[in-house]
């Protein structure tokens, strides 16, 4: 059989093959890094556009302009502006979960866990009004419009993940699952109400500060559920937990 020279394929040594693989991996890593950077620029631009105009008033064209890209480039990362909003909310909820996870946990004193975890999510939103806006769709008028059911369900699940440690701590204090859920819902509702007063400035009407009000609610909750346990909370370092 006659073999043409151009049909011959050079055989690479093991070292040459490894070098080629490294080069390929480096190219892929650079491409991923560029993609992540561009995506981050789009999200940063969208965050400011949503804050100013809401989701309904925002446009892909304006987001692209602020990010320094063409509208067509945006669609290579996101299907629509609602998908961008969902990505921002997902990112926010991941940071929230990380903060709650890092809060102290006490197996022997669940009331300490309850206080620390509650103050973790409250402190997160107290420091980050834009994250609170995203969480409650305040940039588009108090309604989760534009997010499909499956995606909205997933995002709701991540918020529940951040609140669940408080619910488990309440169960560890002796409450049934149903009672723990009820108390945790009331705790969250109380905290959100204080956060809205804080970020709208309405708290000034009462001459109060939201941090001690929230702390007092948690302490009263602990004392009501477990009389005598209030003293254990005195060891908590409140300024560090709130970080304000």
State the shape: extended
How far the N terminus sits from the C terminus, by CA atoms, comes to: 81 Å
User: What is the count of β-strands?
Assistant: 0
Order of helices and strands: HHHHHHHHHH
Q: Largest beta sheet, briefly?
A: none
**Computed Rg:** 25 Å
Low-confidence residue ranges: 27-34, 238-244
- Can you count the helices? 10
In terms of structural class, how would the helical and strand content be classed?
mainly alpha
Mean pLDDT comes to 82
Helicity, as a percent range: over 70%
What does this structure look like?
By secondary structure, the protein is mainly α. The protein has ten helices and no strands. It has helices at 14-57, 60-67, 71-74, 81-102, 110-127, 129-135, 149-172, 177-200, 210-225, 238-242. Helix 1 (14-57) crosses helix 4 and helix 5 (110-127) packs parallel to helix 8 (177-200). The longest helix has 44 residues, at 14-57.
Quick structural overview:
The chain is mostly helical and 244 residues long. The chain contains ten helices and no strands.
Any key phrases for this structure?
244 residues; disordered C terminus; single chain; 10 helices; 0% strand
Topology:
Elements: H1 14-57, H2 60-67, H3 71-74, H4 81-102, H5 110-127, H6 129-135, H7 149-172, H8 177-200, H9 210-225, H10 238-242
């Amino acid at each position: 059989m006659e073999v043409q020279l151009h049909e011959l394929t050079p055989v690479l040594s093991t070292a040459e093959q490894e070098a080629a693989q490294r080069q390929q991996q480096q190219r892929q890593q650079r491409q991923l890094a560029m993609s992540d950077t561009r995506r981050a620029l789009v999200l940063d631009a969208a965050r400011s556009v949503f804050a100013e105009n809401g989701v309904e008033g925002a446009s892909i064209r304006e987001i692209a302009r602020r990010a320094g890209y063409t509208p067509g480039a945006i669609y290579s990362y996101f299907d629509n502006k609602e998908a961008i909003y969902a990505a921002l909310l997902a990112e926010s909820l991941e940071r929230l979960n990380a903060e709650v996870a890092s809060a102290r946990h006490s197996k022997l004193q669940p009331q300490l866990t309850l206080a620390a975890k509650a103050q973790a999510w409250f402190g997160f939103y107290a420091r980050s009004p834009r994250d609170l806006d995203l969480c409650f769709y305040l940039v588009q008028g108090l309604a989760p419009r534009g997010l499909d059911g499956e995606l909205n369900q997933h995002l709701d699940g991540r918020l529940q993940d951040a609140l669940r440690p408080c619910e488990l701590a309440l169960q560890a204090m002796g409450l049934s699952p149903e009672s723990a859920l009820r108390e945790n819902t009331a705790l969250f509702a109380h905290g959100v109400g204080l956060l809205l007063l804080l970020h709208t400035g309405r708290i000034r009407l009462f001459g109060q500060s939201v941090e001690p009000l929230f702390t007092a609610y948690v302490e009263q909750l602990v004392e009501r559920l477990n009389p005598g346990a209030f003293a254990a909370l005195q060891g908590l370092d409140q300024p560090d937990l709130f970080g304000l």
